[in-house]
Structure prediction request, 245 residues.
Amino acid sequence: MDSLKDKKVIITGSTGGIGSAITEIFVKYGANVLATGTNDEKLNNLKKKFQNINTRKFDISCHKEIEKFVEDCSKTLDGGPDILINNAGITRDNISLRMSHDEWKDVLDLNLTSTFLLCKYSIKRMIKNKYGKIINITSVVGHTGNIGQSNYAASKSGIIGFTKSLAIEYAKKNININCVSPGFIQTNMTDKIDPKFKEIIVSKIPSNRLGNPSDVANVVIFLSSDLADYITGETVHVNGGMYLG
Prediction:
C-alpha cells in the first residue's frame, strides 16, 4: 500500500469503533490523516493514540459550515483532500407510525445530506488535483430494511444511489467513488443489543460471528489505494455472507 503514503485523508465519525479502525489503518500506511468527530474527549484520546494525526471537532449536521470546514481541512492538510471517508452517521429508531418528523429529518439530514455536501466540496478540490478517492459507509440495513429504522434504511439506501450517480459523473476526472456496506459489526452499538436477539442475528450470518471493525477498515483501505483504480460506483459488502434478498 505504498500509494497511501502521505495521502491527505479526511475521516468523519473517526472516534467510533469503525471510524477508529479506519483511522488506525490509514496511519499504519503513512497517510496524512485529519480525523473528525463531535466528542472532545474521544478526539483527544484518538490524538494521544495516534500522535501524528490532526483532529478537528465538527458537527457535520451544520450544513452551512461544511464548505468552510472542507477549506479549513485542506489548509491543515496542506492541500487535498486526496481521500474522503464519509463514516459519520446517527440513528433515531422508532416504528414508522410513531416516528416524528424530527426523527426522520435528523437522520436524513446528517447521514445523507451531509454526505452529499462533503462530497460536493471535496470533489471541487479533487478535480483541481486530478485525483480523488471517496468511500461512503452505508449499511446492510440500506439493502434489507429493518424494523424501527425506516429513516436510517432510507438514508443508507440513498447513499448507495447517490454514490453510483456521483461515480458516473466524475469517473473521467480520475475520481473513484464507492460504498462499503458493513453488516453487524462488534461495536458499542451492537454491544447494546439484547444477548438473545444477538444470538438470532449471528445464526443468520454464514460466518457465524459478528464482524470486527478491522474487517471494514481493510476494505476501505483497499478501495482507497491504487489497487482499486478501476473500481468505481460499487458497493462492497462486509457482512459475513448474509443473504440480502
Q: What stands out?
A: The radius of gyration is 17 Å. The beta strands are 8-11, 32-37, 54-57, 83-86, 132-137, 175-182, 235-238. Residues 35 and 214 are 17 Å apart (CA to CA). The domain at 2-185+212-238 is CATH 3.40.50.720 (Rossmann fold).
